[in-house]
Specification:
Shape: elongated
Number of domains: 5
Distance between the termini: 56 Å
Strand content: 15-25%
CATH superfamily of the largest domain: Vaccinia Virus protein VP39
Number of strands: 30
Strand order of the largest sheet: 24-23-22-25-26-30-27
Helix content: 25-40%
Number of helices: 24
CATH class of the largest domain: Alpha Beta
C-alpha cells in the first residue's frame, strides 16, 4: 500500500486527508496540537501524530518507511515548519508537495503590515481597544508594551498552552476569549462589540480560515482592520483540488466515495429555489425525487430517477455508477421531509456516502410571509400520515400550522376543530402554494368547513384564547360523561396523577379504566406518548370511548378485555395505573414487570382487602410509597353548609 505523509496545519490539510482516506493509501497525518488530533477525527488507514516536530524529527519520520510524497499543508505563516519539511524531504529524496491556501485579501480590507513587529509598532500609535485574532503564539510581542497590553483582547482556542501564555503575559481573564471556531460574520461582530474594539488584528487566512467573515464584521461595526501580510508573497504550490487530483493519479487511488446531497426545493418553483440548490441540481450526475419534482430539471448528465420511498432512493444510489447524487425534497429538508429516513436507510444498507443536506424554503415560512405575519409564535405539526392531536395543539398555542394529507385533509381538519367547539377561531388555508394557481382563503372555522379544497393544502389556525387553556390535572367530575360506572373522583385523580409523575412521551396502562377519567387525563398530560385504557365491562368500555371523544384525545387506545390476558400484546409501559384488578393483582404486576422492570406503578385501594394485597405486593419493590387520602365535600342541608366525608383511598406507588 502506498504511504503518504501529510503535515496538516490548516483545514485544507484535514480536507485533503478526508478526500484520500480509505481509498488505497496509508496516511500519516502530523498535527501540532491535541486539538488538531481531535479535529482530524477517525479516518480509515490513517495514523495521526500529534506534537510539534523539529527538522531532525521530520527527517527521521520520513526515513522510517518510504513515503510516496510528503504534503506540506501547514499554515501560510508557519514559514519555519515549511522550511523544515522541505529540507527534510530533500535529505530523504521524498517528493515535496506544497498545498496552498488561496488568498482572499483585498487592498480595501484594511491596513497591511509586513509582520508582527510592524503591527505592534503601528498599534502603539493608535487609540482604542484591540481584538487580536492571530492566536497566542505572538501574544508576548503585543503584551511587552504595558500600555498596549491594557488595550489588547485576544481570541484563541481553549487549549492549556494558549491559556498558559495568556497568564504568563499577565493578561486579565476578561481580556481572553477562549472559544473554538468557525465564526460567522454575526459572531465576529458580537465579539467586536463585546470588547468595544476600535481595531482588529488578523492575517490573510483565506476563506477556510474565516478571513472574509472577520473583515465583513469589522466593516459592519466600524472597526478598522490591521492585516499581517503573507511572509512569502509568491509561494509555489497547488490548491486543494489540484493536490487531490495530483495524488489520486500518483497513488492510483480507488474511486472517490459517493456524495449524496439532499436538496430542499421550496415550493417547487424557480422562485423558491435557493442558489445552492439550483447549483447542486445542475451539477448532479444523478437526480432523484418525485416525478413532479423532476419535471423541467437539468443535470450535468441528465440521469433522473423517480422515487419517493427512502428504500427506493437508496437502491438507486447503490446501483448507479456515479459519484454525485442529488435527492429532491419538497419544502425544507428539516421540516417533515424524508431526509432523515433516507440518511438512516443509507446507513442501514451500508452505502458509503458523504451526505450533505441543503435547507429550502418551507411551506411554513412561505405561507406566513404570504399572510404578512411572523412565525416564531406558530406551533408546526403534520397531519400527513401522522396521528397528531390537532385540537390540543390549537387550544395550547397562539397559532398552529399544519401540513395536510389526503384528498380531504383540509376538510377533515376543519371538522375536527368545529366538533371540538373551536368553530369561532380564524383559519387560513393555502392551496398549491408557489404554483401559478396558488389560492389562499381565510375565515372562521365554521365558515371554511363548508368549502372544498385542493389536496395540496396547508392550514393555519389562530387562537387568541390560548393562554386560558388549563395546564394542571384534576378535571372536574362534571366535565366527564357519567354513568353507573366506577369513577376515580377529581381529588383522588389529581393526587394519583401527581404520584404517576408522567413524562411527555410516557406509555401508560390504565388497568380497569372505568369511566376513562384517569385515561383521558393521562393522555392530556403525556401529549407525545400513548395511553392504553384496559377495561373488561362493556358499558365501561363504551363510557371510556365516549369520554375519549368528548375530550378529543387521539393518543389513547381503548382495549376491551380482562387483565392480565389483555395486557400481553401491549407495548411495554413506562407508567401504570391500576384502578381495578378484580383479584388478579399479583398476575397483573407480573406482566407489567416482565414488560418493563422499571415501570412506575400507582394502584388505588378502597377496601381493606385490597390494601392488604397491595401492602404485601409492595414488599417486592425497591421503592414504595403509601398515602391515605381523606376527602370531604361540601353539600347543602337547608340553609346550612355541611362537609360529607368520602371513602378514604389508599394510594400505593411502587417502582424498582
Amino acid at each position: 500500500m502506498n504511504r503518504l505523509c501529510i503535515f496538516a496545519g490548516t483545514s485544507e490539510g484535514r480536507k485533503l486527508a478526508e478526500a484520500l482516506a480509505g481509498r488505497g493509501a496509508k496516511l500519516t497525518v502530523c498535527v501540532a496540537t491535541e486539538y488538531g488530533e481531535v479535529t482530524m477525527g477517525q479516518l480509515p488507514d490513517c495514523d495521526v501524530l500529534a506534537g510539534r516536530m523539529p527538522r531532525d524529527a521530520i527527517e527521521a519520520l520520513l526515513r522510517t518507511e518510504p513515503f510516496a510524497a510528503v504534503v506540506d499543508a501547514t499554515h501560510p505563516y508557519a514559514e519555519h515548519i515549511t522550511e523544515s519539511i522541505r529540507t527534510a524531504a530533500e535529505a530523504t529524496a521524498t517528493e515535496y508537495i506544497r498545498l496552498l491556501r488561496d488568498s482572499t485579501a483585498s487592498e480595501e480590507d484594511g491596513i497591511f503590515v509586513a509582520d508582527t513587529a510592524e503591527c505592534v509598532e503601528f498599534l502603539k500609535k493608535t487609540e482604542g481597544n484591540i481584538l487580536l485574532t492571530t492566536g497566542s503564539k505572538t501574544l508576548p510581542d503585543y503584551c511587552a508594551d504595558p500600555v498596549l497590553k491594557e488595550r489588547i483582547y485576544v481570541r484563541l482556542l481553549p487549549l492549556a498552552d494558549s491559556l498558559r501564555i495568556c497568564t504568563e503575559c499577565g493578561l486579565p481573564a476578561d481580556h481572553i476569549l477562549a472559544i473554538q471556531g468557525p465564526f460567522s460574520e454575526e459572531m465576529n461582530a458580537a465579539m467586536l462589540k463585546q470588547v468595544k474594539a476600535a481595531w482588529m488584528v488578523t492575517k490573510d487566512t483565506g476563506s477556510a480560515g474565516g478571513y472574509e467573515e472577520k473583515i465583513a464584521a469589522a466593516n459592519a461595526c466600524g472597526v478598522k482592520s490591521v492585516i499581517i501580510g503573507r511572509p512569502v508573497e509568491k509561494e509555489v504550490g497547488s490548491s486543494l483540488e489540484e493536490t487531490v487530483t495530483l495524488l489520486e493519479n500518483k497513488l492510483g487511488l480507488a474511486p472517490k466515495r459517493k456524495t449524496v446531497t439532499m436538496v430542499g426545493i421550496g415550493m417547487g418553483t424557480e422562485g423558491t429555489l435557493t442558489a445552492d440548490a439550483k447549483k447542486t441540481i445542475e451539477s448532479a450526475e444523478v437526480l432523484i425525487g418525485a416525478q413532479r419534482m423532476l419535471e423541467g430539471r437539468k443535470t450535468a448528465h441528465s440521469r433522473m430517477f423517480a422515487a419517493i420511498a427512502a428504500k427506493d432512493i437508496a437502491e438507486v444510489i447503490k446501483r448507479e455508477n456515479a459519484a454525485f447524487f442529488a435527492v429532491l425534497f419538497s419544502g425544507d429538508t428539516g421540516f417533515y421531509s424524508g431526509a432523515k429516513s433516507l440518511k438512516e436507510e443509507l446507513e442501514r444498507q451500508g452505502i458509503q456516502a458523504d451526505v450533505t443536506i441543503l435547507p429550502g424554503i418551507g411551506s411554513l415560512s412561505y405561507f406566513c410571509a404570504k399572510l404578512g405575519r411572523t412565525w416564531q409564535d406558530v406551533k408546526a405539526i403534520s397531519l400527513h400520515g401522522r396521528q397528531t392531536d390537532l385540537v390540543r395543539c390549537v387550544k395550547e398555542n397562539p397559532a398552529v400550522f399544519a401540513l395536510l394529507g389526503g384528498q380531504s385533509g383540509a376538510s377533515d381538519a376543519l371538522i375536527r376543530l368545529q366538533e371540538a367547539g373551536l368553530g369561532n377561531l380564524n383559519a387560513f388555508i393555502g392551496q398549491k402554494l408557489g404554483y401559478e394557481d396558488e389560492c389562499i382563503v381565510s375565515g372562521t372555522v365554521d365558515r371554511l368547513v363548508q368549502g372544498t379544497y385542493d389536496p395540496l393544502s396547508v392550514l393555519l389556525v389562530e387562537n387568541p384564547f390560548w393562554k386560558d387553556f388549563p395546564v394542571s390535572h384534576g378535571i372536574a367530575d362534571e366535565a366527564f360523561t357519567r354513568a353507573d360506572v366506577p369513577m376515580t373522583k377529581q381529588e383522588i385523580r389529581s393526587v394519583t396523577l401527581s404520584k404517576l409523575q408522567l413524562t411527555k412521551g410516557a406509555v401508560v396502562w390504565d388497568v380497569g379504566s372505568g369511566s376513562g377519567s384517569v385515561s383521558v387525563e393521562c393522555a392530556l398530560q403525556a401529549s407525545e406518548g400513548h395511553v392504553y385504557a384496559i377495561e373488561k365491562e362493556k358499558d365501561a368500555v363504551e363510557l371510556t370511548r365516549k369520554n375519549q371523544e368528548k375530550f378529543n384525545v387521539v393518543n389513547m387506545t381503548v382495549v376491551e378485555g380482562a387483565a392480565p390476558e389483555a395486557l400481553k400484546d401491549l407495548p411495554a409501559p413506562t407508567h401504570v395505573f391500576v384502578g381495578g384488578s378484580t383479584g388478579n393483582l399479583k398476575e397483573i404486576l407480573a406482566v407489567i414487570l416482565e414488560k418493563n422492570p422499571n415501570a412506575r406503578i400507582v394502584a388505588n385501594a378502597v377496601t381493606l382487602e385490597t390494601v392488604a394485597e397491595l401492602s404485601e405486593a409492595s414488599k417486592d419493590f425497591s421503592a414504595t410509597d403509601v398515602c391515605c387520602v381523606n376527602v370531604s365535600r361540601g353539600r347543602k342541608l337547608g340553609r346550612y353548609d355541611l362537609m360529607t366525608a368520602q371513602n378514604p383511598v389508599y394510594i400505593f406507588t411502587m417502582q424498582n
